[in-house]
Amino acid sequence: MRVSGATLQDLFADALRGLIDVMKPEGPEADRVHSEIRVVAPDVTALLVDFLNEVLTRCHIRREAYPRVVFSSLTGTALEGQLEGHPVAGFGEDVKAVTYHEAEVRERDGVWSTILVFDI
Q: Three-class SS of residue 65?
């Protein structure tokens, strides 16, 4: 999946939405859930992959989908924020992991971008 954004926050938020879209959450979106998240990594690419894998793990364990995140802070090596989502009956696609293969977050001409590969 190719992801881009005008800011680093946009890139992370779009990558999250893309992950949830690929997972195909099933069931009504009537109730809302929130979950605080903190991730630290050695660089921005690892931060994005680790963030998405943390969300993926929570989705499977809690049976919830989180298509939205509000960051309270986001640097090249750490993030804090609040995931916003809803309970699900299940997922139509079994995403096992977000891989580091081909992932390289970079900024060029004011646009942040990367490629993400999912282990399905």
A: strand
